[in-house]
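Worked problem 6 (solution included).
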Amino acid sequence: MTHRQFLLLFAAAFLGGSAGGILSDQILSGKTAQAQKPNGVNAEEFLLLDSGGKARAGLGLDANGEVGLVLTSKDGTRTLTLSPDNRSAIKLVGQGGRILWGAP
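Solution. The predicted structure is:
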């Protein structure tokens, strides 16, 4: 194959591929799907449940309107709480309500 034949074959393959791509896009694609701009999600609480339906994590507001993130251990004996509204912003609480660790 000569250099000229190679360039001719390359040009034909490139043009054929480009034309085929453009035509298939025009023929096969109808309307394109686009995500709508979300307006937001409103809720007082979001829960993450394990396979047994037990809440393991939650993000929400308490009765006083204070926001918090709560993570619970697998066995339910420890709870990690993050709340900017509380005196201790981060707390690790053991079973029975005993504070194991806290940070301002």
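Discussion: The chain has a mean pLDDT of 83.
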